[in-house]
From TrEMBL:
It comes from Streptosporangium oxazolinicum. This is VOC family protein. InterPro entries: Fosfomycin_Res_Enzymes (IPR051332), Glyas_Bleomycin-R_OHBP_Dase (IPR029068), Glyas_Fos-R_dOase_dom (IPR004360), VOC_core (IPR037523). It holds the Pfam family Glyoxalase. Residues 4-128 form the VOC domain. Coiled coil: none annotated.
Length: 147
């Protein structure tokens, strides 16, 4: 058998706020959005391909201290794309961890930005190369593991 990730579904507390956030940061397009007041959801994607589904069926903030999702990571082709995402993250006023672009570990060429969506869901946008010389906030473990 061969497996590949299809799409990721996230519970959100405010569909409009989350949809707008993901559209701004990731440049997704809305593929479909429910108009039913009691069943709000949106399908977001790129070039017609579904990437992320948002389901308005939660309250509060993401509980990082409980078992479940650690973070959701998106790979981009180059570090310049990561830096553009960092600018959008800052402009959106989102929580940005580690102060900006960081390497995945000491001596790594891969790296990215670590941040939170409006519900506190931890996210990463990274490039496989180009982060050489970027800070490494956690020297004893992978950067993406502890934020």
């Amino acid at each position: 058998m061969t497996f590949q990730t299809g799409h990721v579904g996230l519970n959100v507390s405010d569909l409009d706020r989350s949809r707008d956030f993901y559209l701004k940061i990731f440049d997704f397009e809305v593929l479909f959005e429910s108009g039913e007041a009691d069943r709000r959801y949106a399908f977001l994607g790129l070039d017609g391909t579904l990437v992320l589904t948002l389901w308005q069926q939660s309250e509060g903030r993401f509980a990082t201290g409980l078992p479940g999702l650690h973070h959701l990571s998106f790979q981009v082709p180059d570090i310049e794309t990561v830096r553009r995402a960092e600018d959008a993250i800052r402009e959106a006023g989102a929580t940005l961890h580690h102060g900006g672009v960081v390497a995945h570990r000491e001596g790594a060429s891969s790296g990215g930005v670590f941040f939170e969506d409006p519900d506190g869901i931890r996210l990463e946008i990274y490039a496989p190369t180009g982060a050489e010389g970027s800070p490494v906030p956690v020297t004893a473990a992978p950067t993406c593991g502890f934020f």
